[in-house]
C-alpha cells in the first residue's frame, strides 16, 4: 500500500512539475502582450496577472478543502480529516500570501500604489488574517482532541469569507477588474482577454491546482509521520 502511494505521489509530482513548467513558459514567454497595453511597465504587469490567477486558485482550493475536511472531522472524528484540514490551511495561507504579493506588484504600475483599501483587496486581507488566526488557535491548544474540534468549527465559519471575497467585486463599487463572469466599468488596468490570454490564464490556474494537490499529499504525509513519531515516543516512555 505504501509503495503504491509512493508511486501515485511520484506521478503527481511529475505532472505538477510539467504543468508548472508549461504554465510559466506560457505566462512569461509565449503569450503576447494585450493589445490595449502600451507601456513596458503595463506589459510586464500583465504577465504577473497569470501567476496571480494561479495562486488564487491554490488559495481557494486550500480553504475549500479545509472547509470540507472540517465538516468531515466533526461528523466522523477521524484524525485523518484533521490532518487534511491543517495541512490544507497551511498551503492556503502560503498561496494567499502570494495572492497579496502578486496583486500588489500588479497594482503598483496599474493604480500607482502598492495597496488601496478597495473591497476586493480588503476582503482578501481579511481572509488571510482569518486563516493566520486558525493556525494561531491550533498552536494555543494543547489537547489534540479539543484542538481538532475547535479548529474544525473555526475552519467551517472562516470559509464564508472566501465566497465573500469572490463576490466583492460584483456587489460593491471597486476598481478591481472582474476577470471571470462579467466586466467592471470602474476597473482600472483591465485588459481584454483574447484567445491566447484566456488560454494562458486557464493553463496557469490548472497548473497551480495540480501543484496544490501534490503539495497537500506531501504535507499530509508529513503530518502522519509526525504523529507516528509522537506515538513511538509515548510507547518508549
Mind explaining what this structure looks like?
The structure is a single chain. With 237 residues, the protein is an all-alpha fold. Helices cover 80% and strands 0% of the residues. It is built from seven helices and no strands. Helix 2 (40-76) crosses helix 7 (195-236) and helix 3 runs antiparallel to helix 7. The two termini are 30 Å apart. The mean pLDDT is 86.
Class based on secondary structure composition and strand pairing: mainly alpha
Number of strands: 0
Radius of gyration: 20 Å
Number of H- or I-type helical stretches: 7
Span between N and C termini? Answer: 30 Å
DSSP strand (E) fraction? under 5%
Give the overall silhouette.
globular
Concise synopsis of the structure shown:
With 237 residues, the protein is mainly alpha-helical.
Layout of helices and strands:
Elements: H1 2-30, H2 40-76, H3 79-111, H4 119-140, H5 144-158, H6 161-171, H7 195-236
Helix pairs in contact: 1-7, 2-3, 2-5, 2-7, 3-4, 3-5, 3-7, 4-5, 4-6
Amino acid at each position: 500500500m505504501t509503495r503504491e502511494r509512493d508511486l501515485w505521489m511520484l506521478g503527481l509530482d511529475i505532472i505538477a512539475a510539467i504543468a508548472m513548467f508549461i504554465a510559466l513558459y506560457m505566462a512569461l514567454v509565449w503569450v503576447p502582450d494585450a493589445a490595449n497595453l502600451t507601456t513596458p511597465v503595463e506589459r510586464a504587469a500583465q504577465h504577473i496577472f497569470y501567476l496571480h490567477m494561479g495562486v488564487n486558485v491554490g488559495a481557494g482550493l486550500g480553504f475549500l478543502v479545509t472547509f470540507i475536511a472540517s465538516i468531515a472531522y466533526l461528523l466522523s472524528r477521524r484524525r485523518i480529516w484533521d490532518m487534511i484540514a491543517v495541512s490544507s490551511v497551511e498551503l492556503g495561507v502560503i498561496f494567499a500570501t502570494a495572492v497579496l504579493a502578486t496583486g500588489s506588484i500588479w497594482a503598483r504600475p496599474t493604480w500607482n500604489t502598492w495597496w488601496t483599501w478597495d473591497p476586493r483587496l480588503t476582503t482578501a486581507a481579511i481572509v488571510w488574517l482569518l486563516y493566520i488566526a486558525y493556525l494561531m488557535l491550533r498552536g494555543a491548544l494543547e489537547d489534540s482532541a479539543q484542538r481538532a474540534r475547535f479548529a474544525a468549527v473555526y475552519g467551517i465559519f472562516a470559509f464564508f469569507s472566501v465566497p465573500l471575497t469572490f463576490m466583492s467585486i460584483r456587489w460593491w463599487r471597486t476598481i478591481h477588474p472582474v476577470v471571470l463572469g462579467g466586466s467592471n466599468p470602474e476597473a482600472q488596468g483591465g485588459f481584454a482577454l483574447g484567445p491566447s490570454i484566456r488560454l494562458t490564464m486557464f493553463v496557469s490556474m490548472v497548473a497551480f491546482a495540480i501543484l496544490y494537490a501534490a503539495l497537500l499529499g506531501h504535507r499530509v504525509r508529513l503530518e502522519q509521520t509526525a504523529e507516528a513519531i509522537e506515538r513511538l515516543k509515548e510507547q518508549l516512555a
